[in-house]
Write a structure and sequence with these properties.
There is one protein chain. The chain has three domains: about 90 residues, Rossmann fold (3-Layer(aba) Sandwich), CATH 3.40.50; about 70 residues, Dna Ligase, domain 1; about 130 residues, ATP-grasp fold, B domain (D-amino Acid Aminotransferase, Chain A, domain 1). The protein is built from ten helices and 14 strands. The strands form four sheets. Strands 12-11-10-13-14 form a five-stranded antiparallel sheet. A four-stranded antiparallel sheet has the order 6-9-7-8, covered by helices on one side. It has a three-stranded parallel sheet with strand order 2-1-3, sandwiched between helices. Helix 1 packs across helix 10 and helix 4 crosses helix 5. The protein is globular and about 60 Å long. The two termini are about 20 Å apart.
């Protein structure tokens, strides 16, 4: 099979995605080891995308959700390749919105009866004082669509109205959008890598993420922590993993996601778990990204095996008669 990994220039990656172009190279190399023809295509314009279409690959692996072209418009890759009748990895355009918009995902899952942290959105000067706020302190603030911990730091945890007002204003100045405000959950943090086969079998890998303590003495998984890789990824007990995976799988299914993705879960002080957000084009950097690391830690899956499992569902759609390609772990 001829496969192209579609990504954007490193400097333009702002949302969720496989990561830097080196991460795409990791995926490309794995696909080649599986016996396919593969290349990474860095797309910066409509002309670049049209060139991919002319080459007519059997499958495109989308490493980012969209590319931003010169006039500022975003070209959503799933929508583009769908119109070109080229099979692409992952979820459709409308489902990927749940990845970009944390509020819409939380709203959808709340309506489906899945536990999510209580929340509201805020703009500068929207609330006059503490009594106007829908939730009590402490609260946790972050952008509604930023990925990789962007906008999250020690000041995201707020305990009074002055801190709340300051963080809302600073985030709005950077992102120009309503700010997501959640009740603060003081418990442990988890992530679950999910891969769905062409026959509907789900492989779920749940691990705990332990960030270092912040200056305020709490653990915050923010931008600097993720950049410096100072968090610890831990295997969890089977009994805990079953509970956490069940929430993640329910969330993945309720969002109608396809193929693969990562669901983040947070625990409160009483051991109850809540959906936090979905990452439907998760990082794929060999040796560090949460998705392949979760698969390795929880289920002892090699990087090549992870890519193989993802490809099986994609290739079944690209060529239904093709037998899934198998590799050794």
């Amino acid at each position: 099979m001829i496969i192209e990994i579609i990504t954007a220039p490193d400097v333009k990656i702002k949302e969720t995605g496989f990561g830097s172009n080196s991460a795409c190279a990791n995926v490309t190399d794995a696909i080649k080891r599986l016996g396919h023809t593969a290349k990474t295509s860095i797309c910066n314009s409509m002309q670049d995308l049209n060139s991919v279409t002319k080459r007519k690959p059997d499958l495109v692996i989308l490493a980012v959700k969209y590319i931003s072209i010169e006039n500022g418009d975003n070209i959503w890759l799933s929508e583009y390749f769908s119109k070109q009748d080229i099979t692409f990895s992952g979820s459709n355009r409308n489902i990927l919105n749940f990845d970009s918009d944390k509020v819409s995902a939380k709203s959808r899952l709340t309506n489906e009866g899945i536990n999510t942290a209580k929340y509201f959105t805020a703009m500068p000067h929207q609330f006059s004082d503490e009594d106007d706020l829908p939730l009590l302190f402490p609260l946790f603030l972050k952008p509604t669509d930023a990925a990789n911990g962007n906008g999250i730091d020690d000041f995201s945890f707020v305990q009074n109205f002055s801190e709340f007002k300051s963080k809302v204003e600073s985030l709005h100045a950077l992102y120009g959008q309503p700010i997501l405000v959640e009740e603060y959950l003081c418990g442990r943090e988890f992530t679950v890598a999910i891969i769905v086969s062409d026959k509907g079998k789900i492989t779920a890998s749940a691990i705990e993420i332990v960030p270092p303590k912040s200056s305020g003495g709490i653990r915050i998984l923010g931008e600097e922590v993720k950049k410096s890789d100072t968090e610890v990824l831990k295997k969890i007990k089977k009994s805990e993993a079953h509970y956490i995976k069940s929430i993640a799988i329910k969330a993945f299914i309720a969002l109608e996601a396809r193929g693969f993705g990562r669901i983040d879960i947070k625990m409160d002080g009483n051991g109850k778990c809540y959906f936090m957000e979905a990452n439907l084009i998760p990082g794929m950097k060999l040796g560090s990204s949460y998705f392949p690391q979760a698969c390795k830690i929880a289920n002892n899956l090699s990087y090549d095996r992870v890519i193989s499992l993802i490809l099986e569902e994609c290739l079944a759609r690209a060529a239904p008669a093709l037998m899934p390609f198998k590799v050794k772990n």
